[in-house]
Structures are given as C-alpha cells and as structure tokens.
Amino acid sequence: MNPLASAKCARRLLTAVAAVSALMFLAACGGSSNSTSVNTQGFTNADFSGIYVISISGLDIDSSGNAVPFAIVGTIAPNGSGGFNTGGTLDINDPDNTGVFVGPNAQAVSTSSSYSVGKDGRGTATIVTTALTFNVDFVLISTSHGLISRFDDTSTTIGTGSGTMDLQTTTALTQSSLGSYAFSLGGVDSGLNPLGTVGAFTLNSSGTITSGASAEDFNDDGTSGSGYTNLPLSGQVVLGSSGLSGTATLTTSSKFGSLNFDFWPVDATHLKFMENDTSSNGVLLSGDAFTQATATTAGQVVFVLGGIDSNQNPISVGGYATTDTDANLTNGFEDYVYVGSDALNVVTLKPFNSVTGTSACVASTGRCQTTLNGFSNGTSQAFTFALYPSNNGAQVLEIDSFGLLLGSAFAQSATSFSVAGYGLNLSGQNTNGEVDDIAQFNATSTASPATNMQGNLDENDLGAGLVTTGLNATYTPDSNGDGRGLITAPTTGSLGTFVGALNLQYYVVNDSTALFIDVDSTALDAGQLGVGVFEAQTSPSSSVASRAMSIVRPLVKPHMAAKRK
Asked: What does CATH list as the number for 421-536?
C-alpha cells in the first residue's frame, strides 16, 4: 500500500475536522503569530479587476470522510473594490461530493462574493455560487496573472487544490483566430485512478480538428502502450457566440472514445479546458492548451514531472538536459523523490543519457517520442515519453508501463533569477494528504548562508488545517552555474508548516521564473513531496501581457476515495 495514502492518514482527516476553528481561518489570512512583516509590493484591491479565467484542481472531503477529486474552471469578475460583478460563471466538477455543474448547469458567481488583496499581492476570496461556496488564497504576479489555491478548512467544507488565474482578453475571439495547439490534461479515470493525456490539434476555420495534423497520447494509472499512444485525434473545438468560451470534443480510438469539454480562452495563444461529461465515462480531466511549436528548441532545457511509479507510489522529478530539435537528450541530470521501503527517498544529481537513435518527431503533429536510458523513478528501466512542443514549453507524458509522469520542459534562457519579489505555488502530498501552498517572498542578492528570501507562506494541508507562517529562507545556486539550486527554510519544527521545514530543489527557466520539486523527505512521517513554480512579480502600475504558465500537479490516487455510483 502507498504509505502516503494509507487508511490511517484518511482517518486523521476526520479527526482534524473538529479542530478547525475561525481562528485558523484568520491565520490563513495573515493572522498567525509566526508571520513576518508583509513585504510592500504596492498591490491593493484595485489591482484585481476585470474578467479572469481561473482553474483549480485538487481534493475535497465527502460526507463519509473520503478525499475525492474535484476541478473548478471558468471565469470570475472582481470589481477592483473587494466585490464581484455579474458575468462570472464556473464549471464545477466534483462528482463524488458536491456534484457536477457544467455546461448549461454551470454556476453563476454571485455578487455576494468578496475578496481582499494585501500589499504583497497575496489575497483571499470567498466565491459564492448556488451549488458551492468556497474560499481561495492567491498571489498576484501582475494585474493580469496570479497563482491560486483552494483554501477550505471549516466545520462544513474541507478542500484544497492549486491552479492559475489569468486576465481574459478584452476582445472576443473569432473562430478563425484559433489555430494549432499542444495540450496537457490531468485527472482521474472512472475508478479514480490517475489519468494523464497530452496531444496536439490543428483547427480549420469552422473549428473542426484537421485529420493527419492531430494526435493524442494517454497514460491510465501507470499503463500505456498499444491503444494509448500516438492516436489519430478528431473532433472539434468551437467558440460560442460570445467568443469568450466554447465547447470541444476530442475523439480517439482509445477506450475513452469521445471526451467532451468546456473551454475558456485567456487569449488566442492559451486555452483552459475542463471535461463536462457527467456520466458517460466517469473521467475527470482539466488542463491547458498552448499555441503549438513546430520543434523543440535546441539547447539546455529544465523539466519538472509529477505522478506515480509502477507501484502506485507518488514521485516528483526535476532536472535539466541538453536537447536538439528532435528531443534527443544528453548531458542531463535528474533529482527525484520517491517512496521506497516505507520511507521517502531523495536522489539528487543522477546523470542520464538518451538511448541513441530512439527519439523521433513527426512534423505534421509536432509529436516527439523519446526513450531515456539511465532515467529513474526509483527503478532502472528504459523510460519512454511523448512530448508536444508549444509556446509554453513541451507538454510531457510518460507512455510506458513503469508509471505515470506528467509535466513540462522549458527552454532555459537564464541560469539565475533576478532580485525581485516573487509569488509561489506548491502542490504536493504528505502523510495527511494533499498539501497546497501560496507564498510571496522578496529575493535579495545577499550571499548564502545568510537569509536571502523573506516573506510569508500560506499552507492548506488537507485535514490538518490552515497555516500562515513567515518564510525566512536561503537560496543557494549550484556553483557550476547550471540554473539549479536549493531553497532551505528553518530546520524541522520551526517553520510552522505541517512538516516544519521547506527544502526546494529549483531549476531556473528564465530570469523571472523557476520550477521546483519539494525534497522535504528525510523521513516518511516528517516529509512531503511535490512540485511547483515561483514567478517574479511585476509592479501593479506596469502594463504587461498575461503570462502563459501552467501548473504541474502531481497525479496521485485520492485517499480512501469513494467509488462513483
């Protein structure tokens, strides 16, 4: 049995319900005695205004105390003064708990909803719909982009998850403005097993997916192979009359057949998808589609992947490598955290090399298939991945039968991040279940071992309560200047989070963005693993374009999850 998904952990979720109080909610909004002074980045309520596309996925607790998956995707309309205008509409897909409210039954966001933004860009909101009232915690990266977590831990509602929010283009799109996209979707199958899929589609002027220029790969619960990989993709992706949302059908010869989605364009280069099937196949998927690229970018890339190994145990992987335009990888290193022998294990700087002649790309779909020798998820195999290049990096899925890893790889354009204020999101798992963090910190150029990261961190640990704590940490880049480094927060017990510490292995994408994996894993009972991103904040007075960024979420089995009826 997965040590991080045991029945004991699930029972602890129920025990924790009684301990939640209003005081804990205040702490989540910045009331913890362990918090530091808030950084002054200049944000106010006025910097959160317009129509934002939000997406959040994670776990919540049903009436029997089981942790079950949910996804929420749609639009909200903050008014710049702490309230919400009409016009926001959310799809809520929570089949084992709240219910499924998608398509015609999507939920209008009530004007009784409210929010508050602090001067460091961290904020909280209560989103009210007829079907569900839920709380979120977020950090603004700019006035057009932010990182968001569900932050419910009350006597009646417990849920946690992570995602993004992006200001929607003010100009309604036309069907002809949509072109070719690479996509990545994650979630669960009808048995609540982890499910991941990546692919690419090209649309004609009416929204029909073009034959021969579109393909899709699946991995269901760590199993891929015949009937799952490099499948011809058909269907349609059609904007509604408003040009601000639409519906899609993705059809393959796999056992999943036709999958139906609602989607929301952030702009013509970035679409947000969520499955709107209610009962036909029981699949729950959500994710992103980005403008397709014709080839991988040659040079050094960094990557972060999350999922499960062949024994259904969770694993997080990060690293860097050199690639050519056909995704042949050399000179690479990986770090990974996995469960083995009833303990969490951390392996760092493990070299790997691609198997000569096993990477191939298809020009018509952009799909590359790469087999790696020396790569590991706790075992030694020849692992195979499908990659679809996009303007937001390559969307990556493991397509063998040795586990399920889903994530992204980005061309690296810098090996250090700037002195600036940053927003952070982490999504992972520990012995209490899913954990999601939102943080803001200011990074300085002070040399380690001095504290050179200061801010605040909000954590929602499913069933263990909400915490806000001061984040006083040290980042230490690798001496060889590869863009890899380590963030360390106080020793165990003193940070205030569930595991009491924070150790993040990071990989710089550019001077304003870094990916990371959580390596707080010295012991099973005091460790966690996860993946995340931190991004440089832009002054609220600056005019910037919405930043395309997807959140890599670790795909894991819900704890003691109820089966669908």
From this structure: 2.40.128.120
Q: Where are the beta strands (DSSP E) in 225-379?
A: 231-232, 234-239, 246-251, 258-267, 270-275, 284-291, 299-309, 314-323, 329-340, 343-354, 360-361, 368-376
How many whole angstroms separate alpha carbon 252 and alpha carbon 338?
33
Contact 153, 24 (CB under 8 A): yes
Find out whether 392 and 290 touch, Cβ atoms under 8 Å.
yes
Number of H helices, E strands in the chain: 2, 36
The pairs formed by 447-453 with CB atoms below 8 angstroms and a separation of 24 or more are 448/474, 448/475, 448/476, 449/474, 449/476, 450/474, 453/487
Decide if 9 contacts 2 (C-beta within 8 A): no
Measure Cα distances from 271 to 74, 165, 168, 238, 319 in Å.
Answer: 11, 12, 10, 12, 27
| Residues linked to residue 442 through DSSP beta bridges, in sequence order | 421, 454
Give burial (CB, 10 Å; 0-12/13-18/19+) of 525: exposed
One pLDDT digit (tens) per residue for the chain, 565 residues: 344 543 333 322 222 322 222 222 223 333 344 556 899 999 999 999 999 999 999 999 988 888 899 999 999 999 999 999 999 999 999 988 889 999 889 999 999 999 999 999 999 999 999 999 999 999 999 999 999 999 998 777 899 999 999 999 878 899 999 999 999 999 999 888 999 999 999 999 999 999 999 999 999 998 887 789 999 999 999 999 889 999 999 999 999 999 999 999 999 999 999 999 875 457 899 999 999 998 888 999 999 999 999 888 889 999 999 988 888 888 889 999 988 776 788 888 888 776 554 678 888 899 999 988 888 887 878 899 999 999 989 999 999 999 999 999 999 999 999 999 999 999 998 888 899 999 999 999 876 667 899 999 999 988 677 889 999 899 999 999 999 999 998 765 677 788 888 899 999 999 999 999 999 876 656 678 999 999 999 988 765 555 555 666 666 666 533 333 3
Tracing tokens 């200001």 back to the chain, one arrives at: 167
Structure tokens at 42: 């200049």
Top CATH class of 175-291 equals mainly beta
Token pair, residue 503, equals 């150790």
Class of domain 3-167 (CATH, top level): mainly beta
CA 373 to chain centre: 27
Extents of the domains making up the chain:
3-167, 175-291, 299-411, 421-536
Polymer length in residues for the chain: 565
Can you tell me the distance from the alpha carbon of 287 to that of 465, in angstroms, rounded to the nearest whole number? 27
d(CA 274, CA 2): 28
Q: What amino acid occupies position 426?
A: L
What is the DSSP code (8-state) at residue 129?
Answer: -
Q: Tell me if 175-291 shares its fold with 421-536.
A: yes
Q: Which amino acid does the sequence have at 10? A: A
Residues near 37 by beta carbon (within 8 Å), at least 6 away in sequence: none
**Structure-block tokens of residue 75:** 């639009």
Token output for 497: 């989070």
Asked whether 540 and 145 are in contact (CB, 8 A), the reply is: no
Structural tokens at position 252: 């393959």
